[in-house]
Amino acid sequence: MAEIIQRDGTWAFDGTTVRITPGLHRSVALLRQTYGEVSVPLTAVSGVAYEPERRRGRLRLTLREAADPLLQATGGRLPETADPYRLAVDADRAGVAEYVAEEIRQALLLEQLPEGPAESYLVSGPPVPVSVRSSDGVVSFDGSRIRIDWSDTSDRVKRATGPRVITLDELAGVDWVPNSGYEDGVLRFVTKGSAYAKLPPEKDPYALDLWGNTRKDLLTALVAAAVTARLPHPSLPRDTPALAIRAAVDHDVLLRRLRELGDLHRQGVLTDAEFAMTKRVVLRDFR
Predict the structure, then answer these.
(1) Omega before 129 cis (within 30°)?
(2) What is the rounded CA–CA span in Å between residue 189 and residue 192?
(3) If we measure between CA atoms, which residue out of 283, 276, 253 comes closest to residue 121?
(4) Which pLDDT band, with edges at 50, 70 and 90, does 33 fall under?
């Protein structure tokens, strides 16, 4: 086991999985603390590096393209401090950081894992249900439906339409841009044949205009990721028949649920008997 514990968080590598746990210090980004522990299988990793600096260096994990729904949904736009695959390291722990990075690199070399884009999501992404209160309203996702309840300060056009409910079958994609504090952000649910696609975010009843508290508005990335994880994987061709897309999505969901069960079993939340029984139920439901 290679492990490094810092105020910013903990990385532990057991030869097959990198477990990333955020720190509890107030300096740790709210998004990382809310997301919680992330389990990254070695198959999702493309590289790792320790970047030394005078006072504090950083460990950085690089994932394969399209392996993680959070990175897929945010498109490289997460602020550095909110990136769950970055760990700030005190200068006196540089040696430990180098050791952890080397252990991961050696495992990648020994396993000879594929380097190209992933063909399915290998990281589970945020669990559902997930609900976030943003500057424009509350957005919730239960695994099959998105609901937006507008705030009192939302545009009157949005408030006039009432709560917005969107099913996964209606969705063509999700667009997310963070609120930087200098420019507004947006979480937009792009529906098939949407008539609202060209409306500004403040008037689009399928979009949340992110203009308030930057730290809290960043949490909408978790909703974007949870939804993205349950949409067809980007490796599927655009002209893939609907039945084939549904089969691929169901397969991704099955793998994600089995990984989540495995994590709960390893953490001691599920006993051996509970794990076996729950696994049988999940597999039965996907037949």
Answers:
(1) yes
(2) 10
(3) 253
(4) very high
d(CA 273, CA 116) in angstroms, rounded, equals 38
Q: How confident is the model at residue 251 (pLDDT cuts 50, 70, 90)?
A: low
Taking residue 282's Cβ as centre, other Cβ atoms within 10 Å add up to 15
Q: Are 44 and 122 in contact (CB under 8 A)?
A: yes
Q: How many CB atoms lie within 10 A of CB 36?
A: 12
Q: Where are the alpha helices (DSSP H) in the chain?
A: 30-35, 69-74, 94-111, 156-161, 214-217, 220-228, 242-266, 272-285
Q: Identify the pLDDT of residue 241.
A: 47
Q: Is the pTM of this model over 0.85?
A: no
Positive or negative: CA dihedral 250, 222, 8, 83: positive
Structure tokens at 108: 């990648």
Helix, strand or coil, per DSSP, at residue 65: coil
Neighbours of 163 (CB within 10 A): 13
- Distance (Å) of CA 75 to CA 66, 183, 218: 10, 17, 14
Kind and range of the H or E run holding 41: strand 38-41
Measured distance CA(169)–CA(172) in Å, rounded: 8
As a whole number of angstroms, the distance between CA 283 and CA 285 comes to 5
